[in-house]
Design goal:
Elements (H helix, E strand, L loop, with lengths): L4 H96 L8 H19 L3 E5 L5 H19 L4 E4 L12 E6 L4 E6 H21 L10
Helix pairs in contact: 1-4, 2-3
């Protein structure tokens, strides 16, 4: 006996329902998988962007730190150079004041004569010649003339050389010199400058390191001592 039309219709409806169910389940499965893949991709993209942002700000922070260190170093160097400049200006001021007071040395004629004796004798030992020409300030002529014999005698006692020291009375030392002498021999080929300014310059260079320590203390950055 064949199926009735109603039975066929039921079977068809049942098959349609089954197919719909399968399709629905398949669609839900596809949707679920798509959602999962979407979330995975979204997470990857978010993590990727987060990493880029972290790297960007890490790089920016590093650049800012480098700039800060450079600026700090520049400020420290600027402050150090400014301090060194102020110190040098202070020392220069002391030397300038000492130079301005050199003329006071000549006020005490006895002490000045003794000083000249030493300067002349020292010049003779540097020149080591028997005929020496000497220049001085015109107003020092008399005291220099008195100082020459003792200086020459001291030089002869120690060197055995009898030095003939003559004062150049046509070419006096100028106003830029506070005192002292300039000595020469062999037509000027040998020359020794023992003016007060020259002696001050020499002494100031010799005692400059000690002067700096006395005024400003020991340099803590200095690794080696003379």
């Amino acid at each position: 006996m064949g199926l009735s039309e109603e039975d066929v219709k039921k079977q068809i409806d049942h098959m349609i329902a089954f197919i719909d169910q399968e399709a629905q389940e398949k669609a839900e499965e596809i949707d679920a998988k798509a959602e999962e893949e979407f979330q995975i991709e979204k997470g990857r993209l978010v993590q990727q962007q987060r990493q880029k942002i972290m790297e960007f700000y890490a790089k920016k922070e590093k650049q800012l730190e480098q700039q800060r260190r450079i600026q700090q170093s520049q400020m420290v160097n600027s402050a150090r150079l400014s301090l060194l400049k102020k110190r040098e200006e202070y020392i220069d001021g002391i030397l300038e004041e000492a130079g301005e007071r050199l003329s006071e040395v000549r006020r005490d004629q006895q002490r000045y004569q003794e000083l000249l004796e030493g300067l002349i004798a020292q010049g003779l030992f540097q020149i080591l010649e028997s005929d020496v020409s000497l220049r001085c300030k015109k107003e020092d002529h008399s005291v220099v003339k008195k100082a020459i014999p003792k200086a020459a005698a001291s030089f002869k006692n120690q060197s055995g050389i009898n030095a003939n020291v003559t004062i150049n009375e046509t070419n006096w030392l100028g106003g830029d010199t506070s005192g002292g002498v300039v000595m020469s021999a062999q037509g000027g080929r040998i020359r020794v400058e023992n003016t007060l300014e020259a002696r001050l310059d020499l002494i100031s260079k010799q005692i400059l390191p000690e002067t700096r320590v006395r005024l400003f203390g020991q340099n803590r950055n200095r690794k080696f001592m003379d």
